[in-house]
Amino acid sequence: MGAVVKYIGSKRALLPWIEDVVGRIAAIDPLREAVDLFSGSARVGHALKRMGLRVTANDLYAYAVTLARALVEADALSYPKERLEPILARLQALEGRAGWFTRTYCQASRYFQPHNGAKIEAIREAIELESAGDEHLRAILLCSLLLAADRVDSTTGIQMAYLKRWAPRSYHRLTLTYPPLLPGAGRAIQGDALEIAPQLEADLFYLDPPYNQHSYLGNYHLWETLVRWDKPATYGVARKRADVREHKSPFNSKRRAKGAMEKLLGSLRSKHLLLSFNNEGFLSMAELKALLKDWGYVICLERPYRRYVGARIGIYNPQGQKVGRVSHTENREFLFVATQSKRVQQALLTLAR
To answer: CA 94, CA 90: separation in Å to the nearest integer?
Structure first.
């Protein structure tokens, strides 16, 4: 699925790996339902739905729930291209209208060129009228706008900062397209994973929690603002939402992460579990194996993974001066599989060699 926003936690490059593992599990123990508990960009939930599972996607933030509502919950048969394309064409034809969003994110900061910021603003205002109370249609139109905005932004893929010089793609014209909807039903819910998990049950849980101090709300505050459209108070050069300072997951705390993971794993009702993590996380491979061992048979798979672009080009201050050194350009990505089936464990052991 190429049409997804740039996302530091995205599993685009790792998706074939995850799909292979899920396929091997399903060949031994057929899967019907799955939960993507920290859905983020909805890439994995979308892939699981494409594999034929009924997926429940959960996230705490409005932008992630909106993406899941479009890419996991909405049924493409109810929202086909022939229904959506006239609406997208009307939105595309709107004249740009510069206001608070353009001033904040194109002038006071430089995430988008002003002509695209004004276009984003006009389309966002019109989406509420076009969707007319249809939550799935609203989510699909917002998804299209997020994807379009992502294609013309001027960042390295996270919104902790923007580029000193305009990215070449930022000069392109913002263009709405039909999102990669799938036929069939799913479910998108919004809540804290630690509170939601005990209420859910499925054949397979996929977990991709925050693994270090960086908050996803801080990394993607523009998407949250674009979805909520609440003109929040902002702070700093990056013009982050003021509530970024308030929303910290226990998974973002080195002191609290282990306890949060232990609590989460103890609450899951499932036969199979996939957990994504990497070697930059607060928890080591050994710690995660120890936490998982009471849950079921554990297999740890790993492979190299290139860090996001910003980490590879270095750290710069607002004046464009390089102020940090690149420590490393590659991580080790872990995929832990915990299963209550000895047959599944034996089948996956060959992947761990």
So the answer is: 7
Nearest Cα residue to 253 out of 220, 212, 283: 212
Is pTM beyond 0.85? Reply is: yes
Task: Report the domain count for the chain.
Answer: 1
Q: Can you give the residue range of the structural domain that contains 181? A: 15-352
- What is the bridge-based pairing of β-strands 187-190 and 202-207? unpaired
CATH number, position 238: 3.40.50.150
CA distance 79 to 349: 42
**4 within a domain of the structure (yes/no):** no
Q: CA 168, CA 141: separation in Å to the nearest integer?
A: 25
Local mean pLDDT, 10-residue blocks, the chain (353 residues)? 56 84 97 97 97 98 98 98 98 97 97 98 97 96 97 92 95 98 98 97 96 87 97 96 89 94 96 93 92 92 66 49 53 92 93 77
Longest C-alpha distance within the chain, in Å? 60
Contacts of 284 (CB under 8 A, 6+ apart): none
CA-based end-to-end distance of the chain: 29
Copy the structure tokens of residue 287. Answer: 């710690």
**pLDDT per residue as tens digits for the range 29-48:** 999 999 999 999 999 999 99
Q: How far apart are CA 292 and CA 71, in angstroms?
A: 30
